[in-house]
Amino acid sequence: MANLLSLPNEILLDIFGYFHSIDLLHAFYGLNYRFNNLLYKQYRSYSFDFNSISKLTFDMICQQHLPSITDRVIALALSNSENSVEQIDLFLAYIPSLNVFTNVRSLTFESINSSEKLMEIIDQCHQLCNLTSLKLFSYSIEVEQTNIQIIVNKIWALPKLTHCIFNIYNCAQNHFYMPQKASSSITYLTIDTSNKIKSNQLNQLFEHTPCLKHFSACIEYNINENYIPSTFLTLTQLKITITREYPVQQMNLFFQSFLNLRCLGINIWSILFDGHRWEYMIHNYLPNLQIFKLRMTGTLAEDRNIEEQVDELINSFRSSFWIDEHRWFVRCFTADGRKIYLYTLSNTFNYHEYTMSDSNLFKSTDPHDNEQKLCNSINNIYNETYFDQITSSHLLLPNIKYLKIKLPISDQFWAIIPSLNQLKFLQIYSYVDIFQNQLQALFDLAPNLYSVSIYEDQPSSSYMSIFKSKYTSLHNLCLQDYARCCNHYFDEDDCVALTSSSLSIQCKILSISVTNRENIIYLVENMYNLHLLIVKCKDDKYFKTSPAMENNDELIPWLKDRLPSTCSITRDYDDSWVIRIWF
């Protein structure tokens, strides 16, 4: 500490920049007057990401620190996600207007659950004279067509906005509404794939975004549309997804618009353009292209030999244009019979589609590429029966980060998984107590696990064996499966066993079903690092009255009377049987 105090202010301020802002205030505020003065008067680069923090910490930052440093905050990220219920609403209650953040440059809002709140946020953004980046995420929201149009227009009217991510999934509409106002500042625009853009709308989008340089979106072609290309000289980077069949002549017209394009990423479903066709389009319409990332998925013809078709496709990418001039190598592989995937090796796409089977074909234009290198790129296993389908025994999967697996675990799994050092997320299905040793074996292989979900096929008492497992650093533990509707309800003895287990020592987020409300109180009081409890309660009477209305809810008031007043206690937005307690 003495060495730290001897440093000049300039060096201390540089050191502060290496800390996340929440950790910075935790570590240095309150040490002495000098540090407090540096933090409140001189440090000018606070960036607060409030996702997945405890409500206690959130309240402390908002109430104690933010009022003194609002002019020094350059970035804010707020979320109403399952890990931080009502956070956006609480933040706007603490700080009624965003206009106090006079130097904020970046705002991120995730899981906005009402169109009124979204409109309020956009209106307040117009009071921020330095705002250059706006990221909006919401995966389930009902917004009237008129309001969506107003929101888009207001975003395009923000005077200094350069970066925009628009990921608002409207339940009633999956198309993006074109801006009716022009933005002279937006240069980076990402529109999520849930908001499709028709190709004949592109001209309007670019006319109202004339400075656009980087653009990412999902493009949809309709056979009856009349697309007339324009030239968009500012665009240098394009990333698109095409979900429907796109005729060759329309693709030619599409690329004629981007003469200055330097980087192209394209993901095409259900269409296979060969290397000759891509070479023609790039050579004639994209003369400045330097980076090309391609992903195509299609189905091979049934009346022709599979290997002949694969060879024909891969050989079309072996010309000097691909190999010598650009060094753009591609690999392709088959799966599920006649399904084929083709990727450029420059891609960062996840190969979760690939099943290691002796019946699959693997081809590459890179002489140094092989099937093991493809397996090295597999990070996520989303199919719990994936390892039951594997027939190749000579390949390894060394870099799994997300694993969904069904018990009992096959011998094939242990043969091809050398370690799980990178595993962060684990989902276990069909758990029964006789598989406790296999669960422990997974824990032993995975020293960096962050989240574990364990599900049964049938409710039983076998969950008690889980708590015999030894693992002390879990952040997230999920013991209920909403989709399968076969949750085990934990009684008092179960809850005592859970809180005594090493699995609960560092647990911050717990999802569970309990037999009665007293179990909820016990878990909150005895899991000392917990800051979010997602719980179903068997004696919840909310839906036992008809109609189910807010004034029938007696469990929420009961919990509020017995838990600290600082807790946020709400019913889940999508499933009202589920209660979220954030504390």
From TrEMBL:
Q: Which residues form the F-box domain?
A: 1-46
Superkingdom, taxonomy of origin: Eukaryota
> What lineage does UniProt assign to this protein's organism?
Eukaryota, Metazoa, Spiralia, Gnathifera, Rotifera
Give the protein's recorded name.
F-box domain-containing protein
Cited PROSITE patterns: FBOX
